């Protein structure tokens, strides 16, 4: 038993898609995921560069969109590294310390995205309902404080989850997933995970309740404010907020499905499919969802392109 525990604590082994050999060994699958990663990285970095280089977009709403794009790019990169290596080679192991580091950064980035989406809803609420006070309520100082506070709070939350997970004793090193997450790690434990499950679920409920209640309250005020305006302004307001509400609904829906359940007796195969969608597809779609129907972004982009060709 001592040898087994010692072996387990030096490395973990990702099974990935080994239960689907046609995916595991397929070069096409690796190319597909590389395409998604490339689109995600180029899309989010493009948004970051566009907002940074365009003074008209130096407003609170684009400040938080800038942060969201950065978080999406980082979160995908944390997952993609091991995913690509596992698809194109037989090297599917990671050290114990490497696994804990990856889990910490992953949890921190996921939580940060949740709260940034919440802050964006609050920002739009102020912009629509209290436009005259908008520059005061959402000053540069307050925006920075919200961003820093979100990051520090989520870092603390991630430390708690990582510590809670790696206090377990692991009897197996083979993880039925394509990246290192809390629930798959719980399934490897040879000790009772009841207390650890309770900690995970309680923190998840508190976070989801805080985020979703804030978003719902903000959108309740937003809808009331839009209904007071004329049809044209109301239509524009609904279009502006619809993209954000779509992302929030999909993102939080998948998080609730994955984390708000006991780890025992839950199918990790279902979690793998859900994780592919929430952690790989959503970061790729975010730049498209937020920018394709955004008139300001499209106008700035056209001006930059025309300047480039005319110079």
Span of the ends, CA to CA: 71 Å
Task: Give the strand line-up of the largest sheet.
Answer: 2-1-3
Using the CA coordinates, give the radius of gyration. Answer: 21 Å
- Main sheet record: 3 strands, mixed
Molecular shape: globular
The name of the CATH superfamily reads Rhodopsin 7-helix transmembrane proteins
Percentage of residues assigned to helices: over 70%
Strand fraction equals under 5%
- Global mean pLDDT: 78
Sketch the topology as an H/E string, one letter per element: HEHHHEHHHEHHHHH
Describe the structure.
This protein is globular. It has helices at residues 2-8, 21-24, 27-53, 60-88, 96-129, 134-137, 140-166, 182-186, 194-228, 231-259, 268-291, 295-310; strands spanning 11-14, 93-95, 174-175. The chain contains twelve helices and three strands; from the N terminus they run αβαααβαααβααααα. The chain has one domain (2-310): Up-down Bundle (Rhopdopsin 7-helix transmembrane proteins), CATH 1.20.1070.10. A three-stranded mixed beta sheet has the order 2-1-3. The protein is 77% helix and 3% strand. Helix 5 (96-129) packs parallel to helix 9 (194-228), helix 7 runs antiparallel to helix 9 and helix 9 runs antiparallel to helix 10 (231-259). It is mainly α and 311 residues long. Its main location: membrane. The chain crosses the membrane at residues 27-51, 63-85, 201-226, 238-261, 273-292. It is found in: Membrane. It comes from Odocoileus virginianus.
């Amino acid at each position: 038993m001592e040898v087994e525990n010692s072996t387990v604590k030096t490395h973990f082994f990702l099974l990935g898609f080994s239960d689907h050999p046609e995916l595991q060994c397929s070069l096409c699958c690796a190319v597909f995921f590389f395409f998604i990663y490339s689109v995600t990285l180029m899309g989010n970095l493009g948004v970051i560069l566009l907002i940074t280089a365009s003074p008209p977009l130096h407003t609170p709403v684009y400040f938080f969109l800038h942060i969201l794009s950065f978080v999406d790019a980082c979160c995908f990169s944390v997952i993609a590294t091991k995913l690509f290596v596992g698809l194109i080679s037989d090297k599917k192991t990671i050290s114990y310390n490497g696994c804990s580091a990856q889990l910490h950064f992953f949890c921190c980035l996921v939580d940060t995205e949740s709260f940034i989406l919440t802050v964006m809803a609050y920002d739009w609420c102020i912009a629509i309902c209290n436009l005259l006070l908008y520059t005061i309520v959402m000053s540069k100082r307050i925006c920075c404080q919200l961003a820093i506070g979100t990051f520090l709070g989520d870092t603390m939350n991630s430390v708690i989850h990582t510590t809670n997970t790696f206090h377990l004793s692991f009897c197996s090193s083979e993880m039925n997933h394509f990246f290192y997450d809390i629930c798959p790690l719980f399934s490897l434990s040879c000790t009772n995970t009841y207390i650890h499950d309770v900690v995970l679920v309680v923190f998840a409920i508190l976070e989801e309740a805080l985020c979703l209640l804030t978003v719902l309250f903000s959108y309740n005020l937003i809808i009331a404010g839009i209904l007071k305006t004329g049809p044209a302004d109301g239509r524009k307001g609904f279009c502006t907020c619809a993209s954000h509400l779509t992302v929030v609904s999909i993102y939080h829906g998948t998080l609730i499905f994955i984390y708000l359940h006991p780890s025992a007796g839950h199918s990790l195969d279902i979690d793998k499919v859900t994780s592919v969608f929430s952690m790989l597809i959503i970061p790729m779609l975010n730049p498209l969802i937020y920018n394709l129907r955004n008139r300001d972004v499209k106008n700035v982009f056209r001006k930059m392109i025309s300047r480039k060709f005319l110079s």
